[in-house]
Amino acid sequence: ASYVGPGDTIFIEAGSTNAILARELARRSGVRIVTNNVYIARTLKDSEVDVVLLGGVYQHDSECVVGRLATLGLETLHFTKVFIGVDGFTEEYGFTCSDMMRAEVAGAAISKSPEVFVLTDSPKFGRIALVQICDTKNATCVITDREIPGEYRLVLERAEVTVDTV
Predict the structure, then answer these.
(1) CB 4 within 8 A of CB 22
(2) What is the pLDDT of residue 15?
(3) Pick from 72, 80, 58: which is nearest to 105 by CA?
(4) Alpha helices in 36-126 (DSSP H)
(5) pLDDT digits (tens, 9 = 90+) for 112-125
(6) 162 pairs with which residues across the strands?
(7) Cα separation of 79 and 28, whole Å?
(8) How many CA atoms lie within 13 A of 91 on its CB side?
(9) Are the C-beta atoms of residues 5 and 81 closer than 8 Å to each other?
(10) E strand or H helix at 131, and its extent?
(11) Are 85 and 120 in contact (CB under 8 A)?
């Protein structure tokens, strides 16, 4: 949440870690949040934050909207920062996701922002999920726990990606 300031327009993709971010940002004002996640939008219902919820095909399990309507909605928007969750990261395949349709929405959001933050826990490092979301060159910062394996920290730092452990 410390990376988000007044006047920012951010995209928050689905995921449990991103839901925690949204809860932290609910105390802020002067921030606009675009999301494809109904749970995140509900988390922000009593906040001072402006919320834009994308339309699309509703996935019951993840409470996400995905598909062509969601990506069309992103075409006219621009963000100062994008926050995504991932299911895996390797040097060879970059950041990956187990859901092709969610990865498509995340990729579309990434293309509309100069800064991309990846929020993930350390067990995801070394895993390869079904589909690539983006390469390391697309990421600005990875926020993870202190258990990130050293080899992956080095891979990210060599790619000039900031690694922030919390």
Answers:
(1) no
(2) 86
(3) 72
(4) 38-43, 68-75, 100-110
(5) 999 999 999 999 99
(6) 141
(7) 17
(8) 11
(9) no
(10) strand 131-134
(11) yes
